[in-house]
Design goal:
Elements: H1 5-28, H2 34-63, H3 76-86, H4 91-98, H5 102-110, H6 118-128, E1 133-135, E2 142-144
Helix pairs in contact: 1-2, 2-3, 4-5
Length: 146
């Protein structure tokens, strides 16, 4: 997942390099040896993945509210990053809004918020106004936590 503008630019450059590599392989011959066919398939898979990531980032920047809807709690780290992107905030702006240091936010994002304390998670959720609803697996009842 692309998490910020810097990663977005790097991903676009990587995609252009992949396009060039694919073009070079296609231009060598009609009948490619097995090794080159495998490389081509790998490059095309990477191309698809990067194009999807770029399209998702672009969509978040323009009209991401549809992407920010109901999700599993496991997807909360991505939701926080997507919210930041959709809001048009840089890491610095987002960290200032939530009251943590930019370097700490970078660490959280780099590890998908795995080391964040519950206290800091709630602080972020409250600061940005995200409301989390938990659905009970047994009863289906909704309970809001932030």
């Amino acid at each position: 997942m692309i998490k910020n503008e810097k990663q977005y630019k790097i991903t676009k450059k990587k995609l252009l390099a992949i396009y060039d590599e694919i073009k070079q392989i296609h231009g060598t011959s009609e009948h490619l040896p097995a090794k080159e066919r495998l490389i081509l398939v790998s490059l095309m898979t990477m191309q698809d993945q990067l194009e999807t990531e770029i399209a998702t980032y672009d969509l978040l920047k323009t009209k991401g509210s549809a992407l920010l809807e109901e999700r599993s709690i496991d997807d909360l780290p991505n939701l926080l990053i997507e919210f930041k992107i959709h809001s048009g905030m840089t890491q610095k702006e987002f960290s200032e809004k939530v009251g943590i240091k930019e370097q700490q936010l970078q660490r959280y994002e780099a590890e998908n918020f795995k080391s964040i304390s519950f206290k800091n998670l709630l602080k972020i959720l409250h600061a940005v106004g995200l409301k989390i609803t938990v659905k009970g697996a047994i009863t289906g009842d909704n309970q809001s936590i932030a």
